[in-house]
């Protein structure tokens, strides 16, 4: 008899976290499940740990990738090999909270929807405390009770700009996935976006029991989600291509058009942002990649548009890109007087901060005096080989702060915090380089 749940866990070099992850599933007070581990050619002892766990529990099935294929293809393998009625996604460095499966099972029996919206917490490094992100409280689903009055998913997003489409926030009927051919595209960064968007396009009614099922580990600064540069540009190109393809295919409603355009703009901006730190070699590789794979894709720096013809001949985009980057750097220097600064402080550690730091180092020869962050779990970690410090240890009040947090409220709070430490207001700058 087939199990009720299939827990799909892609694994790549996760030996540090695998034990707590797998134990969190095996210790559930619900037994009708299977665990599908897709080992994506790990180079550490992940394979050994997985095999040891498979000896402990017959619920564990291991699928071995002969080479590293990425999380998207690995999850697709999990979906196709699953036997469970409902799919639950779990990453190998996260945990499934106690009673999650039982609570979810009882809800599905009661409400009977193909899509169930889940909630998650974010873990600190010690796995004992949780962080609630602003994007989760303001960008997630509206505070309406729609577990009984089942409604289409997209109608309940509070804020398209803040909403982060994540596959592990949904438990989905496997037959529904197969019938609608909802799989992950071969994308390494931001691979969840298209998968979740395609759930929206099905216009299927969903339920939202507000069960917190997962705890996500999000404090590592070298995770795939914090990758910058060439790989992100490639992922943006792929996302843009498939969003445009889906747009033409589904005959979108007004709210779906709004959602698609929001994502087109998101990936267009992210593409150009990461393009700024690509080397000449990377630009050439990127140009060749687009020419060979997606020659019809048009990317406009002002807004995403839906038309044809990106470039007519090989490498014709490099000249255009170099011109854009040159003009951008001139405007950036004009606005922030970067060429006159010898040292600068960075506040906030994120993928965006990485881009800003590389941009400053490569083009303006500015020394990074220090990086500060209020998250205690980031402190003493490194970003771009620079240790992150607590702001309380800051002494020099003459060095400018470039705040790499673009959220309006967050910047306001950071500015107030710095001013209380006697940092002059004119030394605190919201470093929004995209506005140029």
CA radius of gyration is 23 Å
Distance N to C terminus: 60 Å
CATH class type of the largest domain: Alpha Beta
Q: What is the count of structural domains?
A: 3
CATH architecture of the largest domain: Alpha-Beta Complex
Low-confidence stretches: 132-139, 300-313
Net shape: globular
Please give the share of residues in helix: 25-40%
Number of helices: 13
CATH superfamily of the largest domain: Spore Coat Polysaccharide Biosynthesis Protein SpsA, Chain A
Number of strands: 18
Name the average pLDDT: 85
CATH topology of the largest domain: Spore Coat Polysaccharide Biosynthesis Protein SpsA, Chain A
Strand content: 15-25%
Structure, described:
- The protein has 436 residues and is an alpha/beta fold.
- It folds into three domains: 215 residues, Spore Coat Polysaccharide Biosynthesis Protein SpsA, Chain A; 103 residues, no CATH class; 98 residues, 3-Layer(aba) Sandwich (Rossmann fold).
- Helix content is 39%, strand content 17%.
- It is built from 13 helices and 18 strands.
- The strands form three sheets. The chain has an eight-stranded mixed β-sheet, sandwiched between helices. It has a six-stranded mixed β-sheet with strand order 15-16-14-13-17-18, with helices on both faces.
- β2, α2 and β3 form a beta-alpha-beta unit.
- It is globular and about 70 Å long.
- About 5% of the residues have low confidence.
């Amino acid at each position: 008899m087939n199990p009720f749940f299939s827990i799909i866990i892609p694994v790549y070099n996760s030996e540090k976290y695998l034990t707590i992850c797998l134990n969190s599933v095996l210790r559930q007070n619900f037994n009708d499940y299977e665990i599908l581990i897709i080992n994506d050619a790990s180079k550490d002892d992940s394979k050994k740990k997985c095999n040891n766990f498979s000896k402990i529990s017959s619920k564990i099935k291991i699928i071995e990738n002969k080479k590293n294929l990425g999380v998207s293809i690995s999850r697709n393998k999990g979906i196709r090999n699953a036997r469970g009625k409902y799919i639950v996604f779990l990453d190998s460095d996260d945990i499934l909270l106690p009673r999650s499966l039982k609570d979810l099972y009882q809800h599905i029996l009661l409400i009977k929807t193909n899509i169930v919206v889940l909630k998650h917490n974010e873990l600190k490094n010690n796995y004992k405390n949780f962080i609630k992100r602003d994007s989760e409280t303001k960008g997630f689903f509206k505070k309406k009770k729609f577990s009984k009055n089942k409604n289409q998913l997209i109608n309940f997003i509070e804020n398209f700009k803040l909403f982060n489409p994540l596959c592990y926030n949904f438990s989905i009927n496997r037959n529904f996935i197969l019938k609608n051919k909802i799989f992950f595209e071969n994308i390494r960064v931001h691979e969840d976006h298209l998968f979740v968007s395609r759930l929206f396009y099905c216009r299927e009614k969903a339920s939202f029991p507000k069960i917190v099922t997962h705890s996500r580990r999000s404090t590592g600064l070298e995770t795939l989600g914090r990758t910058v540069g060439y790989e992100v540009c490639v992922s943006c190109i792929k996302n843009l291509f498939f969003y445009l393809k889906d747009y033409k295919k589904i005959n979108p409603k007004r709210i779906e058009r709004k959602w698609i355009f929001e994502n087109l703009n998101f990936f267009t901006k992210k593409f150009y942002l990461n393009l700024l730190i690509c080397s000449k070699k990377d630009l050439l590789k990127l140009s060749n990649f687009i020419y060979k794979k997606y020659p019809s894709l048009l990317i406009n720096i002002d807004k995403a548009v839906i038309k044809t013809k990106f470039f007519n001949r090989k490498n014709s985009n490099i000249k255009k890109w170099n011109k854009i980057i040159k003009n951008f750097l001139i405007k950036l220097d004009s606005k922030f007087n970067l060429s006159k600064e010898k040292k600068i402080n960075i506040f906030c550690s994120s993928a965006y901060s990485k881009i800003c730091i590389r941009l400053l180092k490569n083009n303006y020869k500015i020394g990074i005096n220090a990086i500060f962050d209020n998250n205690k779990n980031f402190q003493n970690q490194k970003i771009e080989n620079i240790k992150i410090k607590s702001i309380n240890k800051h002494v020099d009040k003459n060095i400018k702060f470039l705040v790499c947090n673009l959220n309006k409220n967050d910047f306001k709070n950071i500015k107030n915090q710095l001013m209380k430490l006697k940092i002059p207001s004119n030394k605190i700058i919201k470093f929004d380089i995209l506005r140029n």
